[in-house]
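Hi support team,

I'm filing this because I wasn't sure whether my run with guanosine-5'-diphosphate finished correctly. The job status page said complete, but I'd like someone to confirm that the output block is well-formed before I use it downstream. Pasting the exact inputs I used:
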Amino acid sequence: DQVPVQSHSSDQSPVQTTGDIVKGPRAKAAFITLARNNDVWEIAHSIKQVEDRFNRKFHYDWVFLNDKPFDDHFKRVTKNLVSGEAKFGLIPKEHWSFPDWIDQDRAAKVRDEMRANNVIYGDSVSYRHMCRFESGFFFKHELLKPYDYYWRVEPGIKLFCDVDYDPFLFMKDNNKKYGFTLSLKEYEATIPTLWKTIKDFIKEHPEYLAQDNSMGFVSEDSGHSYNLCHFWSNFEIGDLNFWRSKAYNDYFDYLDKAGGFFYERWGDAPVHSIAAALFLPRNQIHFFNDIAYWHNPFTHCPTTEADRMKGKCSCNPGDNFDWKDYSCTSKFFEINGYEKPEGYQNQQ
Ligand code: GDP
Ligand code: MN
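And here is everything the job wrote out:
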């Protein structure tokens, strides 16, 4: 039997910080990291980035999840870096395995074909479990029950600017449900039938489409075809209750039944992004311009010098991906009628 809660630290020693702890209300929120034991040093780096730039002043909890038990070393190293409570959870088997309706031979054949075609992670079983878990299950984990908001943090990321306000409270106070820093186009070979499957689902459930949704972000032809745009989900600040909604769970179950997590290589980024684009009104999706972020190989760095100065940013604006061809952030600005920041042309 799986034990979902491995350990709970309740005996945190007083936290050493160089700055003052920000007084005032907190959201019910936590950082969430999915990781393996051998990700320990990469995630240690990420935690330090997040703590130095933000959490040392806020002390939010950090939930670590793994399909295998975390070892003591992983727990010791990470817990020591987190200023809030660190919690370590095991993922239940049903959330990290092949559903019984999946034809194993067909799935294996697809992996062979994708290996031959050099599709990134195309031959990986574990990557598929990861994408399916992030798509449909992370928000159901028992350790996340106390929380309404989350910030997803992956191993090996960088933050380049101070975050001097509470992004979780920002989400709550402004009724935002999904926040991103980077967007781009998906590899078509990983999702050949995703859009058709979603269209079939919408035909069954037209009531789930939000009024004033972001269809224009994901489609150039009013929903006929997918333009491959998605929010890059290795960074997300979001409302867990959106993923817990009936609309989203009906959607995920429909996709899961269709089998594309295994017969193709559907990523959690397009799965999350298309749901956010279609089921949320536009004004509930937020671009976190002030959170400068790097995950290999892309950087979000605020476009204007004024914003970079304000955040004491250390990123090179020449590295900013926002206005490049392969980014979809221009499209996000256009469908929302936002004015692009001064100087964006110089970063195209
Ligand atoms: P990429 O960002 O798409 O290149 O993929 P990553 O290798 O960064 O994986 C995405 C996230 O899932 C990271 O947080 C990884 O630590 C985590 N992850 C990937 N595969 C596994 C796995 O097999 N087990 C666990 N526990 N975590 C995984
Ligand atoms: Mn990653």
